[in-house]
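Hey, can you fold this?
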Amino acid sequence: MSTSFPYGNPDFQEVTFYSRDGQKITINLYSIDLFYQYNVRICINLGSQLGASVVLLVFLLLLTHSDKRGSSVFILNGLALLFNIVRLLFQTIHFSTPFEKVYPFFSGDYSAVKPSAYAISILGVVFETMLVMCTMISLVVQVHVVCKTLRRRYRRPLLAFSVLVALVPIGFRMGWMVINCIYIMAAEGTAEWVWLESALNIVITISICFFCTVFVVKLGHAIRQRRRLGVRDFGPMKIIFVCGCQTLTIPALFSILQYFSHVPELADNVLTLVTLSLPLSSIWAGAALENAQRIDATRRPRNLWRALAFGMSRSMSSNRSGTEMTATAYTGQTLCYADQQISKHSQDSEIPLAISVEHDISVDSVRCSRQDKSMA
């Protein structure tokens, strides 16, 4: 049987403690509850992001072929995941430092905080800036690769504008890093610089939307052309298209929702979602491409003409021409094959030449030797 509390709501009882100089500090229990609940929620959010980043980094290292580990996209995506892991690790450790104790937080007395706690907080801010730089550079590189087939007069302005769009959030982030580190060393709040943090979130959201819009529109146009050609399989391009839509919508949605809801965990998820989406699309696309090649190799149709025409050439030495190598490599397709390198001896002799055209129609032709021409 519950009884009424004589002094009002018990959650709002006031607690009084003394500072180092003997002044009284009065707070209520509700403020202490909010303080601990906020720390617990942030730590859960950071821990989940940290676990996802570690798992994806392991997958990226294991599932990427050794010949592709030297590419700029792999290096940038791997560094972004590594920087994100270090950032989340330092931010999680921050909540175990004296900065997050009740007395320093409510009294403002941080004299007992050790220099290591300041270093942990500053390193978390620095690695977040490095994460933003790697993410933006990776987006610029991937947009450049995707738009490689565009005309030069369109590709160069797009690349220049992409670099500009990437430099703006990097500049804002570096400015916010400097101000944040200064206020961390002074152990003061950054309430007067809230506008800069809000502007940073806005430019990051705009840059993500821009890059991914270019990325998705170009790949969507390519997929549409493939459908016109009769290629309707769910290949790597569609996978990158889907992941590009995910990279476009989900981080931007989280970044926009933070202005309409009082959930502080939403803003911290934006960079992690972008960092996870970029390598995830390449891993998925690479796995689908390997699976498609494996299925094509097992289901390759047996053609009697190809076995007679190219069966003996596979056991020959490496003096085959480049065109002949190409023809034997893609035996699963209908090719138009012709030997481009004909020796003088073959021109003077009667050697039948076979040409494979569409629907596997074989056409034989015979060259006339010079001796036959003179007799004629």
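Oh, and this one too while you're at it.
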Amino acid sequence: MPSSTDPGQTSDAAIAGESADSTRQRIVAAAEEEFARHGIAGARVDRIAKQARTSKERVYAYFRSKEALYAHVAERETTALVEATQLDPTDLPGYVGTLFDHFTARPDHYRLITWGRLELVEPAGSTAGRLQGTIAGKLDQLRDAQRTGLLDPAWDPVDVLALINQIAMTWAGQPEIAAAAADQAVAPSIAARRAALVAAVERMFPRPD
């Protein structure tokens, strides 16, 4: 059975007589969908249990509370995002394209993380530390690029990171405009939306020759 280090989780050793892998995976998958759709306050453990083909009691055997379950899901999603979107400070347009691709392929991820930002004072579980460490590492990369002449030193690295992240999430954060673009944009494809973001960042932070 898998081990657990998430706050609020029950040790798998305490869950006897069940195929822990399959049940736990179904619970987490159902929770991802539930939290992305309804947020933390609006999510219901009974719906998660039904979707996972198990009982509420079994959900609580793995995760002591709804908040602990959200913390686990948020940490998984954050880890997936960090691993999928490594920063190359010499190719910020490419980084924005990678972020765009991630959120286009996983729209539920953006909604799930946004719910946490709206409803929680601090990120859930160990997500806060992971995010701060990732941000600090990216800022160090940007500073190094400025010191070696690969990035304009006139910019504050924190502004660079905030701007390119926000640009990358332009369409994920504005689904109503994305819907309008499908009918009214000169080039309505997703590829055209991606190209526009990449071009915007290329103008702001051109790749070094």
